[in-house]
Fold this sequence. Notes:
This protein is mainly α.
Amino acid sequence: MKSHNSSGLHAWHSILKGRDVLLKGARWRVGCGEAISIWNDAWLPSLEHPQIRSNIVPGFEDGKVSDLINPFTRQWDLNLVHGLLSPEEAVLVISIPLSGTPVEDKIIWPFTPSGNYYVKSGSKFLANLTSMLAPTGNPQ
């Protein structure tokens, strides 16, 4: 029979593992962009490369995604997006639809249609991540 202490420890380890999965897989859904760092957060609509990889531009170190949005038209500032990011990243950014009214940024789980996290989808994500990181080739 398990002691109360060991079952509590197992539950705690499970919670920490679940948190790690969420941190690796969760993405930001752009609303107004004020909560999202251009350079440090996962917000691009790409499962493989959700973070900006372009070099940080001096003067924009603390830039938020909202800085890339024209506040009057609520559209992407195309000159700024193309000026700060690689062509591939700029295309991804411009593909993100923006609301005509300010909407709160939201953290989502992009591996389910609803955007909600489920343990099964987290396990599948981890399995895919592990297989992507595994060395290729046959050991000799």
